[in-house]
Amino acid sequence: MKLPLRFWFPLCALGFATTSALAADYWVYLGTYTGEKSKGIYVSRLNSEGQVTPADLVTVTTNPTFLTVDPQHRFLYAANETGQFRGQKTGWVSSYAIDAESGRLKQLNQVSSGGDGPAHISVDATGHAILVANYGGGSVASFPVQADGSLGAAASVIQNHGSSVNPERQSAPHAHCIASDPSNKFALLCDLGLDQVLVYRLDAAAAKLTPNNPAFASVGPGSGPRHIAFRPDGKFAYVINELSCTLTTFAFDVATGALKEVETVSTLPVGETKQPKYSTAEVAVHLSGKFVYGSNRGHNSITVFRSDAATGKLTMVENVSTGGGTPRGFGIDPSGTFLLAANQEWGGVVVFRIDPETGRLNPTGDVIKVEKPVSVVFVPVVG
């Protein structure tokens, strides 16, 4: 898969060596909802100017709606959001080896996700444990990573119980996101159905989860916590709430795993009233720790916040249209230069340049055209 000529001319004209350009390039893997026009996981190539190549289908698989990559960029894992796997009422998790030169994927294996409708997958900091949130079944599971990158049988499957105040969306637990904290001692789960962020102790070597004490922190009734992102220093965690279109800042105690709410703010522009069609999706913290980003579906925007270094409190910087419909997932490239927003319904994956001083987003004009994109991850190009 060669980089188009249009990528090379501006670099050569400015006197840059092509080797340095290659070093700054990333493979962009896109998870999708599959159907008539979308067939699985796609890849594009992003260069240092923010230009992208057309999407290329690299594996055919059902509803790979969330992707994650191991810390060494050797393996990619997908949560296949379904309710049936080999006769079981569960979804599944797929593992792939990454060819960092070509961007191609080689499937290693598939295992049951341990519950219905897996909606999120993450890998711990050591690359030894895969964590999965099963939205439909309301459970979490953890899996050991074998030496070849394939997945072993589940080391933990924990079923949650309970409900909250919204009878349509919160009559049962709905595990929506699970991720390890920067210390890699804990894994935190956003459960939309319970209005709780549950805390587990993580034994990465054994890929095992056990409930923590304290076991959870609550958000406002009916908020519906969806995703969580930590500031790199590990002092604060940001939880985006799907049903209320809000973002909650928690102070995090790395010694005990305890969460203490600092504040909750709207993800919508000042003066904007939440509409029934509005909901949030993704949250991400810039690698500098200075900025926090959240996506608004229905409103079709990303809101940019500045994070106070001492308190973790958020100040809104701007709200930017994603240039498409229903922005679900988005990703910030490992250099912190670009944000790529995946518009699930229309508009494809839109590339924004991040202002390093203000966090503001400026569209580059480049778009990856793919149907129903919902997850974005990056792998450095090799060679």
Give an overview in words.
This protein has 383 residues and is mainly beta. It has a single domain, classed as YVTN repeat-like/Quinoprotein amine dehydrogenase (Methylamine Dehydrogenase, Chain H, 7 Propeller). Helix content is 4%, strand content 51%. It has helices spanning 5-13, 18-23; strands at 26-32, 40-46, 56-60, 64-69, 75-80, 92-98, 105-112, 118-123, 129-134, 139-144, 156-159, 175-180, 186-191, 196-203, 208-218, 225-230, 236-241, 246-252, 259-266, 279-285, 291-297, 301-307, 314-321, 325-332, 338-346, 349-354, 361-368, 373-380. The termini are close together.
Keywords:
single chain; 383 residues; mainly beta; Methylamine Dehydrogenase, Chain H; four-stranded antiparallel sheet; 2 helices; globular
The gist of it:
With 383 residues, the chain is mostly beta strands. Helices cover 4% and strands 51% of the residues.
